[in-house]
Amino acid sequence: MGAILNLLSDKKVLVSDGAWGTMLQARGLTPQHCPEEWNVSHPEDVKSVAAKYAQAGSDLVLTNTFGGSATKLARMGYEDRVREFNLAGARNSLEGAPEALVAGSVGPTGEFLQPLGSATASEMEAVFSRQISAMLEAGIEAICIETMTAVDEAICAVRAARKLDDELDIIATFTFDPTPNGYKTMMGVDPQQVAEELPQAGADIIGANCGNGIRQMIEIVNSFRKHTDLPILVHANAGLPELVDGQTVFRQSPEAMAAHTLALVEAGANIIGGCCGTTPEHIAAMKAALEAPAHTTGC
After folding, report:
1. Which of 48, 79, 277, 281 has CA 20 to 30 A from 19's CA?
2. How far is the C-alpha of 134 from the C-alpha of 105, rounded, in Å?
3. Is the pTM of this model over 0.90?
């Protein structure tokens, strides 16, 4: 049992962080920049994001390494800097939020496994291993494999992490869309399949992130809880995306997100945070909702 599971056994519900892209964009990150390169060129900006979330009450803070795989970095000419960017990303969060638990963020590679794509399982696992090992070198105690849509790719990431450190807490979250047959990923994966297959690969915590606002996440958590006793993590967007003047925006206020926080816990969520559009203010509001007397006393 790792640090997150130990803390969960004591606190029952943990608060995670919110969006990283939203915060870095406010500090000058543009679509032309590589977010992971900022771990080296703008470390104080990255550390400040981790610090802001810790100050808002996050028990768990992620790293600015979502696109830090060699496959992703190669598209911007940085494939030879995997270790450098991921090591720095982990250190930035550890230094920015020393009072919080830190989990290394690992996103999809953008590639498909055979037969849909050209990558073999061993090749995909090696890509994830290279990224994760750099973060472990920095001293993190957990990995958050997030925004996944394909079970086989997520399993490769989980297996890579588990082989590197058997004591790690490993989180695996997927992004779901509403369909006539319930919530599924773009690859047709539903919460039941995640709940059945990811723990077998070595995941300790499963859940959902991105793609949905907090109200939609309640139904997704209900679906998960029917098929698993594992802790469930939810990183919801600040509402559903809207296109305004050619830009995607998320309008849900901190207060509106906080109003649904207890319902998410009642559905079975154990770790609650934010994704696109959320800020430290959203996290602080959700934290306050969880700590309100009616919730803490069980009234």
Report:
1. 79
2. 12
3. yes
CA distance 245 to 263: 34
Q: Which domain holds residue 17?
A: 3-296
pLDDT in tens, the chain (299 residues): 789 999 999 888 999 999 999 999 999 999 999 999 999 999 999 999 999 999 999 999 999 999 999 999 999 999 999 999 999 999 999 999 999 999 999 999 999 999 999 999 999 999 999 999 999 999 999 999 999 999 999 999 999 999 999 999 999 999 999 999 999 999 999 999 999 999 999 999 999 999 999 999 999 999 999 999 999 999 999 987 777 766 677 879 999 999 999 999 999 999 999 999 999 999 999 999 999 865 543 43
Residue 181 tokens read as 């047959």
What's the CA gap between 191 and 189, in Å, rounded? 7
> In the chain, how many domains are there?
1
Contacts of 271 (CB under 8 A, 6+ apart): 4, 8, 13, 14, 15, 16, 60, 205, 207, 231, 232, 233, 234
